[in-house]
UniProtKB/TrEMBL annotation:
It is an enzyme of class 3 (hydrolase). Keywords: Hydrolase, Protease, Thiol protease, Ubl conjugation pathway. This is Ubiquitin carboxyl-terminal hydrolase. Residues 1-57 are annotated as: Disordered. One of its GO terms (molecular function) is cysteine-type deubiquitinase activity. It comes from the Eukaryota.
Length: 448
């Protein structure tokens, strides 16, 4: 984020200059705060035999941090002497992005270096659905790097009608904070506020569906980062020689160009066939996840079974058959046409039979998923995937809790993210009846 932002419009340049000035002020404040806290910390060390008063306890976060920093051999803080030396810099110079993120957004952090990406998210009142999704997003490596390293700056579209770049900015700030490795946990209240501003449903403290949140978040991120809504759509080229699938994909790409689209979007063929006259209607549509049904008969199944159910098709009624010119029963089925680099699979546990209910089915999903088992057109670029994230839902419709299991690519280990608590988890514990959304990443160079 220290990279200067290049924007063509003067207005944006002025905005950036203004932003830079604000960041400078924040850094000065932060340095001053660090100096003051170091003094306090030294003072506390001198008084360490005296029991802490409640007011000291309240500020234990910063003390804890200072104490840790002093013990960190990487930091050039000399503390053999209890006397405070003003010539010694109290803290390692904070990264600009970290300062601006922490200060502008008030993450209300609990300090403590657990490792990069090993930071919990405080519950802001039933916000576990959001925390679960953010941890999965945060462990989507290309997306996390894009936000963390500031590359997204080039793409943010502050003029779009829906969220004006706000969601992208907030997600970037959260991701940067999570990967800074400074915090045991943070509260992403600003992201939640922005989300609530744009969708009333997420404003309060009610339980929400993490899949619905993911879908909306991805839409917003795509809009915020869509280069095509800023530039004009790509000119339609002559594509008569393209297949209908490729034509549909080209049309989609002409208006949608973002990292979200490149990573998460695939294409499927949707066929509706009249049960009376066999007339077919075929459309090619983009998808950002596959929403798989679960078998109704058993309480244990494999992901392959769910995938087959999804691809087998289902009976729909009241389809307007263009041939019969009447409402007919029909079979609607999907074929996967183009697989994305990041494959998100939603296990559709919730169903309606007068009441909303949840299936607690244990779905046996693989760590290594080979999509070649399913009806695919040949020449797929991505077919082999490995699991890196699971959003879990425990409980029922009435009340439940979300957690996330994510593989940290830096440490090559799985962690359980349960709101503010993060703990290492064994591979054997990843599969459970709570698995709700699965995140797979393509294994590169394995597209034979
Ligand atoms: Zn018909």
């Amino acid at each position: 984020m220290s990279k200067p932002v290049k924007m063509p419009e003067d207005r944006q340049r002025m905005k950036d200059a203004e932003k830079a000035r604000k960041i400078e002020v924040e850094i000065r404040k932060e340095k001053e705060k660090g100096r003051q806290e170091h003094e306090k910390g030294t003072y506390a060390q001198l008084r360490r035999d005296i029991p802490a008063s409640p007011s000291i306890m309240q500020r234990s976060h910063s003390y804890h941090n200072i104490a840790q920093m002093r013990d960190d051999p990487d930091l050039n803080v000399k503390h053999e002497t209890p006397h405070y030396d003003r010539t010694i810099k109290p803290l390692q110079k904070p990264q600009r992005s970290e300062v601006s993120a922490a200060r502008r957004r008030n993450f209300n952090p609990v300090w403590g270096n657990m490792g990069k990406g090993i930071t919990g998210l405080k519950n802001l009142g039933n916000s576990c659905y959001m925390n679960s999704i953010i941890q999965c997003i945060n462990n989507t490596t290309p997306l996390a790097l894009y936000f963390w390293k500031g590359a997204y700056h080039e793409d943010v579209n502050y003029d779009n009608n829906s969220t004006r770049g706000e969601v992208a900015e907030e997600v970037a700030a959260v991701v940067s904070a999570l990967w800074s490795g400074q915090y045991r946990s943070i509260a992403c209240r600003d992201l939640k506020n922005v989300v609530g501003q744009h969708r009333k449903q997420f404003q309060g403290c009610e339980q929400q569906d993490s899949h619905e949140f993911l879908t909306i978040l991805m839409d917003w991120l795509h809009e915020d980062l869509n280069k095509r809504s800023r530039k004009s759509p790509l000119k339609e080229t002559s594509n008569d020689n393209l297949s209908p699938a490729d034509q549909a994909w080209e049309k989609f790409r002409r208006c949608n160009e973002s990292l979200i689209r490149s990573l998460f979007y695939g294409q499927q063929k949707s066929t509706v066939r009249c049960c009376k006259c066999s007339e077919e209607s075929v459309t090619f549509e983009a998808f950002s996840d596959l929403s798989l049904p679960l078998p109704s008969s058993s309480n244990k199944c494999s992901l392959v079974e769910c995938m087959k159910l999804y691809l087998n098709g289902e009976k729909i009624s009241g389809w307007n058959c263009p041939c019969c010119k009447e409402k007919r029963d029909a079979i609607k089925k999907f074929d996967i046409w183009r697989l994305p680099p990041i494959l998100v699979i939603h296990l559709n546990r919730f169903y309606h039979d007068g009441w909303w209910r949840k299936r607690q089915t244990y779905v046996d999903f693989p760590f290594n998923l080979d999509m070649r088992h399913f009806s695919l057109v040949p020449d797929q670029r991505y077919v082999s995937y490995k699991l890196y994230g699971v959003s879990n839902h425990y409980g029922s419709m009435e009340g439940g809790h979300y957690t996330a299991y994510c593989k940290n690519e830096l440490y090559n280990k799985w962690y359980k993210f349960d709101d503010h608590e993060v703990s290492e988890i064994s591979n054997n514990d990843i599969r459970s009846g709570a698995a709700y959304i699965l995140f797979y990443t393509a294994i590169s160079g394995n597209s034979s």
